[in-house]
Amino acid sequence: MNKFPVLEVFGPTIQGEGMVVGRKTMFVRTAGCDYSCAWCDSAFTWDGSAKEDIERLTADEIIERLLSIGGQQFDHVTISGGNPALLKNLGELIDPLHQRGIEVALETQGSRWQDWFTDIDDLTISPKPPSSKMNTNWLVLDEIIARLKENGRDRHTSLKVVIFNEEDLGYAEEVHERYPDVPFFLQVGNDDLEENQPANLASHLLDQYEWLIDQVVASEKLNRVRVLPQVHALVWGNKRGV
Ligand SMILES: C[S@@+](CC[C@H](N)C(=O)[O-])C[C@H]1O[C@@H](n2cnc3c(N)ncnc32)[C@H](O)[C@@H]1O
Ligand SMILES: Nc1nc2[nH]cc(C(=O)O)c2c(=O)[nH]1
Ligand code: SF4
Ligand SMILES: [Mg+2]
């Protein structure tokens, strides 16, 4: 059995972002990322600050952990990171979850393909805008979207771009124009990762949400889209494990 680097198993909570926002779900957060986004809200997965907390667990051990924390109170698991698409053998976790009647969602940035992408029920691909300081490899992203389409995964796939400024909006327009058939989400960027009062953060993020709505409303290139905040950030602020 392969072992996977795991930093957090938590829930049940709600999916706070994107295509299945509000869905009751457990989370498994893997360690390690091939990016280092300037504003990453989960930098502890790759910046070394939590390296003592990384556990190497088999799929069976992850499922045991999910059941011991979540009991019978869940039927959906979201895998995030870090970039879980770095893990070649993740099918070893996805398949037994499905056998138990549990749906599986996954969050990744679209920098790597894995064959098990076609088994994910709710696959969110989140390419990174200029404010992240990362560069999109369009050929890789083209290939990922094409393969998902070839495999009839359209209804299980979405694109989600986080927006911090007008340049990011231009990038979001570019992504949506390139893949017009893929359900498209614009998400409010959280630029205050140090705020520890949830009410202060919520107030600020709602202002940012209003700004983002205004921008999208005014755009001719962003029509068949959805605009969302991170609901978990509105409710719990910058708290980890929620
Ligand atoms: C922490 S990432 C992990 C999965 C994968 N590495 C990715 O980026 O898609 C999960 C989601 O959080 C988003 N995210 C990260 N930092 C954020 C921030 N400061 N504000 C809003 N969304 C953020 C990412 O864009 C991604 O959609
Ligand atoms: N509630 C909740 N929803 C989320 N959606 C995406 C998350 C992530 O960090 O990938 C996340 C998270 O950490 N918590
Ligand atoms: S790709 Fe995701 S996990 Fe990696 S640095 Fe960017 S936001 Fe963080
Ligand atoms: Mg998060």
UniProtKB/TrEMBL annotation:
<feature type="binding site">
    <location>
        <begin position="126"/>
        <end position="128"/>
    </location>
    <ligand>
        <name>S-adenosyl-L-methionine</name>
    </ligand>
</feature>
<dbReference type="InterPro" id="IPR017742">
    <property type="entry name" value="Deazaguanine_synth"/>
</dbReference>
<feature type="binding site">
    <location>
        <position position="29"/>
    </location>
    <ligand>
        <name>substrate</name>
    </ligand>
</feature>
<feature type="binding site">
    <location>
        <position position="82"/>
    </location>
    <ligand>
        <name>S-adenosyl-L-methionine</name>
    </ligand>
</feature>
<feature type="binding site">
    <location>
        <position position="37"/>
    </location>
    <ligand>
        <name>[4Fe-4S] cluster</name>
    </ligand>
</feature>
<dbReference type="InterPro" id="IPR058240">
    <property type="entry name" value="rSAM_sf"/>
</dbReference>
<dbReference type="InterPro" id="IPR007197">
    <property type="entry name" value="rSAM"/>
</dbReference>
<comment type="pathway">
    <text>Purine metabolism; 7-cyano-7-deazaguanine biosynthesis.</text>
</comment>
<dbReference type="GO" id="GO:0008616">
    <property type="term" value="P:tRNA queuosine(34) biosynthetic process"/>
</dbReference>
<feature type="binding site">
    <location>
        <begin position="14"/>
        <end position="16"/>
    </location>
    <ligand>
        <name>substrate</name>
    </ligand>
</feature>
<feature type="binding site">
    <location>
        <position position="42"/>
    </location>
    <ligand>
        <name>Mg(2+)</name>
    </ligand>
</feature>
<dbReference type="InterPro" id="IPR013785">
    <property type="entry name" value="Aldolase_TIM"/>
</dbReference>
<keyword id="KW-0460">Magnesium</keyword>
<dbReference type="GO" id="GO:0051539">
    <property type="term" value="F:4 iron, 4 sulfur cluster binding"/>
</dbReference>
<dbReference type="GO" id="GO:1904047">
    <property type="term" value="F:S-adenosyl-L-methionine binding"/>
</dbReference>
<feature type="binding site">
    <location>
        <position position="80"/>
    </location>
    <ligand>
        <name>substrate</name>
    </ligand>
</feature>
<feature type="domain" description="Radical SAM core">
    <location>
        <begin position="20"/>
        <end position="238"/>
    </location>
</feature>
<dbReference type="Pfam" id="PF04055">
    <property type="entry name" value="Radical_SAM"/>
</dbReference>
<protein>
    <recommendedName>
        <fullName>7-carboxy-7-deazaguanine synthase</fullName>
        <ecNumber>4.3.99.3</ecNumber>
    </recommendedName>
</protein>
<feature type="binding site">
    <location>
        <begin position="39"/>
        <end position="41"/>
    </location>
    <ligand>
        <name>S-adenosyl-L-methionine</name>
    </ligand>
</feature>
<keyword id="KW-0456">Lyase</keyword>
<feature type="binding site">
    <location>
        <position position="40"/>
    </location>
    <ligand>
        <name>[4Fe-4S] cluster</name>
    </ligand>
</feature>
<keyword id="KW-0408">Iron</keyword>
<feature type="binding site">
    <location>
        <position position="33"/>
    </location>
    <ligand>
        <name>[4Fe-4S] cluster</name>
    </ligand>
</feature>
<keyword id="KW-0411">Iron-sulfur</keyword>
<comment type="subunit">
    <text>Homodimer.</text>
</comment>
<dbReference type="GO" id="GO:0000287">
    <property type="term" value="F:magnesium ion binding"/>
</dbReference>
<dbReference type="InterPro" id="IPR024924">
    <property type="entry name" value="7-CO-7-deazaguanine_synth-like"/>
</dbReference>
<keyword id="KW-0671">Queuosine biosynthesis</keyword>
<comment type="function">
    <text>Catalyzes the complex heterocyclic radical-mediated conversion of 6-carboxy-5,6,7,8-tetrahydropterin (CPH4) to 7-carboxy-7-deazaguanine (CDG), a step common to the biosynthetic pathways of all 7-deazapurine-containing compounds.</text>
</comment>
<dbReference type="GO" id="GO:0016840">
    <property type="term" value="F:carbon-nitrogen lyase activity"/>
</dbReference>
<comment type="similarity">
    <text>Belongs to the radical SAM superfamily. 7-carboxy-7-deazaguanine synthase family.</text>
</comment>
<keyword id="KW-0479">Metal-binding</keyword>
<keyword id="KW-0949">S-adenosyl-L-methionine</keyword>
<keyword id="KW-0004">4Fe-4S</keyword>
